[in-house]
Amino acid sequence: MNTFLEDFYKTMKRIRTFEERVSELFIKGETAGSMLHLSIGEELGPTCISKAMNDNDTFTTHHRGHGIFLARGGDPNKMMAEIAGKKDGYCKGKGGSMHIADMSVGHLGANAIVGGGIPTVVGAGMSYKYFSKPSISVAFFGDGALQQGILYESMNMAALWDLPVVFCCINNQYGMGTKIDKAVAVKDFTGRAKSFGLNACSVNTLDVEEAYYKIKPIIDDARSGKPGFIEIECYRFYGHARMDKSPYRDIDEEKLYRERDPIKFAKKKLIDKNILSKDNIDKLDNEISNEMDEAISFAINASLNDTNEIFKDVYSNKNPESIKTRIKKIIGN
Amino acid sequence: MNTFLEDFYKTMKRIRTFEERVSELFIKGETAGSMLHLSIGEELGPTCISKAMNDNDTFTTHHRGHGIFLARGGDPNKMMAEIAGKKDGYCKGKGGSMHIADMSVGHLGANAIVGGGIPTVVGAGMSYKYFSKPSISVAFFGDGALQQGILYESMNMAALWDLPVVFCCINNQYGMGTKIDKAVAVKDFTGRAKSFGLNACSVNTLDVEEAYYKIKPIIDDARSGKPGFIEIECYRFYGHARMDKSPYRDIDEEKLYRERDPIKFAKKKLIDKNILSKDNIDKLDNEISNEMDEAISFAINASLNDTNEIFKDVYSNKNPESIKTRIKKIIGN
Amino acid sequence: MSDIEKDYFEEITYRDALRLAMHDEMNENKNVIIMGEDVAKYGGAYGATKGLLDIFGENRVIDTPISEPSIIGASVGAAMTGLKPIAELMYVDFFGMSLDQIANQAAKIRYMFGGQTSVPMVLRAQGGTGRSGGAQHSQSLESWIMHIPGLYLVMPSKPCDAYHLLRKSIQLDDPVVFLEHKMLYNSKGSLDKKNIDAEFGKASIRLEGNDITIISYSRMVNIAEEAAIELKKSNINAEVIDLRSLNPLDKENIIKSVKKNKRALVVSEGHYTSSVASEITSIIFEHCFGDLLKPVIRYTAEDTPVPVAPNLEKESIPSMENIVNFSKKLME
Amino acid sequence: MSDIEKDYFEEITYRDALRLAMHDEMNENKNVIIMGEDVAKYGGAYGATKGLLDIFGENRVIDTPISEPSIIGASVGAAMTGLKPIAELMYVDFFGMSLDQIANQAAKIRYMFGGQTSVPMVLRAQGGTGRSGGAQHSQSLESWIMHIPGLYLVMPSKPCDAYHLLRKSIQLDDPVVFLEHKMLYNSKGSLDKKNIDAEFGKASIRLEGNDITIISYSRMVNIAEEAAIELKKSNINAEVIDLRSLNPLDKENIIKSVKKNKRALVVSEGHYTSSVASEITSIIFEHCFGDLLKPVIRYTAEDTPVPVAPNLEKESIPSMENIVNFSKKLME
Ligand SMILES: Cc1ncc(C[n+]2csc(CCOP(=O)(O)OP(=O)(O)O)c2C)c(N)n1
Ligand SMILES: Cc1ncc(C[n+]2csc(CCOP(=O)(O)OP(=O)(O)O)c2C)c(N)n1
Ligand SMILES: [Mg+2]
Ligand SMILES: [Mg+2]
Prior knowledge:
The complex is a heterotetramer, with two copies of chain A and two copies of chain C.
Chain A: H1 2-27, H2 44-52, E1 58-61, H3 66-71, H4 76-83, E2 107-110, H5 118-130, E3 137-142, H6 149-160, E4 165-171, E5 174-175, E6 178-179, H7 189-195, E7 199-203, H8 208-223, E8 228-233, H9 251-259, H10 262-272, H11 278-301, H12 323-331
Parallel strand pairs in A: 1-2, 1-3, 3-4, 4-8, 7-8
Antiparallel strand pairs in A: 5-6
Helix pairs in contact in A: 1-10, 1-11, 2-8, 4-11, 5-6
Chain C: E1 8-13, H1 14-28, E2 32-36, H2 52-56, E3 61-63, H3 68-80, E4 84-89, H4 95-106, H5 109-112, E5 122-127, H6 142-146, E6 152-154, H7 159-171, E7 176-181, E8 188-192, E9 204-207, E10 212-216, H8 219-232, E11 238-242, E12 245-247, H9 251-261, E13 264-267, H10 276-288, E14 297-299, H11 310-315, H12 320-331
Parallel strand pairs in C: 2-3, 2-4, 4-5, 5-7, 6-7, 10-11, 10-13, 13-14
Antiparallel strand pairs in C: 1-8, 6-12, 9-11
Helix pairs in contact in C: 1-7, 3-4, 8-12, 9-10
One magnesium ion binds next to strand 5 of chain A.
């Protein structure tokens, strides 16, 4: 059992360090814009769920999805380059932080539309069922998406058709500046999921191992055709996007919740249980730090796209004509 | 208590007779098209809920809304004329059966979009709360709309803001040719509503009085700011729209359910309890029959619109130019 | 479902042509599935999928709940993971609630993800007036779709094109919005499965003529053809162009014909403003500037919601008589 | 919120002008409410409602759940029952999921119900590129709205118009879609509350000129003005027309100016095809046929989704330099 914890710690630490570097990249003025949604403080959920998933499983994420992607095998270099809007990024710099994807690790795409990527996993689940593949597909989304009707349509379809699908809500208590209390009357979201016929569980702990054992059965059941819903309660340590300082939040609340840190908790547990020494952890942290520094360098040094890239990938078999060309055809060169 | 029953019977009988006349009007070739959705067999719900509502309450309906409208005071003549697409109809013949409305009796509109009229009542509820009016607003919809995400968004908003709103599902077991079993995994819809924070009840009876006493508290609670959900289980006696013969349904099922007739039930109860004699009921039926015959005549004799009507009511303060006029301005007369 | 073995039909309905196209593709490619409201047992609100459930079973012809955004969203996910979904949206009017999945997801996924994946799906829907369906069941919303890069847009008027273009749509690696017209399902024409004239972006010249070019698509092509026949009586030879697909659009043949005839009329059942008709009109003016003897006229539905009353509904869209009148006027 | 007492501002931001407009209407009419995601405590994603919560309280400035279709739908219901809602949609890109409530409900209710009721609401949203928001947060979807009868469509470029037109929108008895541009909020201009030049359907001539007419709206007006100043250096006098509202559209002033200058360029940040630009281009060709010395040119965003990479994003929309180039070309 304890062997997991080292892994878990490493995953969570990599996520956090990556996000810190994204922040640095932003400060250096090297990111493509400021619509960057960091998941610092929210590392537990993606980590334990990712661990419960198999290699051929797939997933979609919301706009705050770096952590999930990393946990599932995303390459920090290509991620960082994408966030920088560079040619060597995952999506040639055309998708950016909010629309990043990697089909090779089953990342069917991040989505900047709250709830937009949820029905995708229903369709993926239909495929796996149709082809009798042992895969599942997991939709990650925030608590805000609990108020998007498409979630309930999708839950209903998944339950109706016994699809290998999991809906995973990373409930960080806020949708931008709106606290969850101001968005819903009833905070037991498992009740919603169950009423549509899903397995459901909610996890509120700092202990990633405990969380893992709680959510694992939901994932396993999904694989055998009983779709599930998982809520991970956590807290968004910093602002909504890179420019937001969360003036709408109580400072004491922020302080309190930032103490509730799953990474600190795991570190302590590793030491207390004599799994890793402090030194070993420092070494690991250092490795991670170097890895992520490299990602920054990679992103900064990566080359910009040729503007002709604008016209590629709209269709599989043709590129749209540029407006300039169209105009030339009308009034000449 | 028994005094209600006569009223209830009359309301249900008027609805049924009206719908039969719509069918006749169609056969005569006098309706505007065939997108006519009759509520024969479904009279109990609208009747008992209407009774529980007050004069200044409002409502929206789905495409199968004639019954609700009648129960709330709709004028059969103007309804029939609207269904015929005539100038003297409620909406000058421009809305027809699926988009009929009468602000004067609180009918905020029928909707041809499944689920389309649901958030309207949330907005109406916001108004009543804002103006401290003692009104409620009720959305009527079919079981099909239970699979439209907008319903859950609206439920959530109503619960969050303590709105005087009721969501009423007329569950006739079918959405077009699809049986409810093929549309959902879990048929307890009150569970869905409760999970969002609503009062909820489901009614499955032929006894309109019993239904009334069951739903009344939900309506009353809504008035004091606790929104509710009511499911009325019933059966669509005939086809989905006027041309549909329901070939997808089992004949035995149809037979069985057509026996389960709330009007027959009420009639028997009236006689058994000596509230009305069979003769009195026949007399009442006759009056209703005459009333609805008149509606047919009214509709048939009503005049057609002048084609200039096309351009009216698009905006409050201007009419769009006709295409002919636009073209004339370009190429002359 | 009879006749599935035949390769040539002297006369077949538009509905049956669609059904055969789906049948033949499903036969050849086991990854093709159909999903939508009442497409299986009911056979589709307009009957286009009737019989396919019996042949292909409920794993491939799937009745869905009434959840348009999720039907289309699930098709997107299915398309990204190996299936070839044909989703049916019962009315184009329901684009209103589902455009996020169509225009923000299906249309943009390939682009946003840098070409990593495709969304090979077909979204079938039907629109138009003719059944007194009113403002929410009679629209022609192709302009919304044509405006969005990433979506093929196909609107055939004839059974043979419906057949071949639907098959090609299913074979394509991109999302296709395939729009039918509620009054076309019972219309008839021939179908030769072996003789494939239809291609995306290739208009068909339905009638040749040297006086005026009438450009149209979907049901309005048939009205334009009637008008052309009527115009012959006045010795006016109209060339009738059936666009068949709006994206890609056959600019070349439009321009060629108008350069020849120097007069053009664009006919569409959509609204006038900011529309497919505006687009085609612009293209003609831009490229035939100098050649035109008269301004191009766009003749469309009124800029009002569609009224239910049959007399008003009919008056609110283009008529054969007015196509004739406007054409004559242009010939003056 | 300072300055609320002042009637004249030498310099005010577009954002503050909007905020003042809402403030002043709310002050005068207690039925006006604001609702939307993060409009209250947060003050709106782009800050346009900042401070209004403190002044008007949470009964009138209402944070909603992230439920766009229902936010707009509830506004429709509120508008039908006595309130005057100003709904905020954080990005026009969310039209995709909410057009049913906008285009099938708000736009059509008065018509379908034969004029019995109105839907007096304002839907504010913002669009456009400039922040690397990518394909799902950078669109300019006014064409979808302009196509639908029943919806006013307002897209001011200047703080003073933003102020006056927003007030008029709130006063109107019809649904208004009021579209801002994410890069305009910090732009500045003067505002005279007493001097009302803005009206629906009345374009503003930003710069007069006798050589070429440049027609635009929203942010692109500012780029067009810069281009006009640049063109002066080459002795070309461009007339810059700011449409301010697209429905109603000031055809008269467009036509008048183009008849005078005989050359026209239409500039829009929306896509090229089936667009607002196609519409304006058609109108000019139709009505200035015979007067034009050169074809009208529409210069728009590319027909591709909007890429995130800043260099690509910038290249995908019209630039000042190219407006200058195309104008010069037209003057040849
Ligand atoms: C459909 C839609 N509505 C609104 C937004 C704007 N927006 C972006 S993120 C966000 C908050 C989402 O909150 P939540 O789902 O809890 O995710 P979190 O940001 O907390 O991770 C909002 C309102 C959006 N992108 N899409
Ligand atoms: C959004 C939407 N989807 C589909 C339809 C087509 N349609 C009209 S009625 C109907 C069935 C509705 O079933 P239900 O809600 O149970 O109402 P019922 O007809 O049984 O009264 C369908 C699918 C529609 N009008 N609107
Ligand atoms: Mg959140
Ligand atoms: Mg039903």
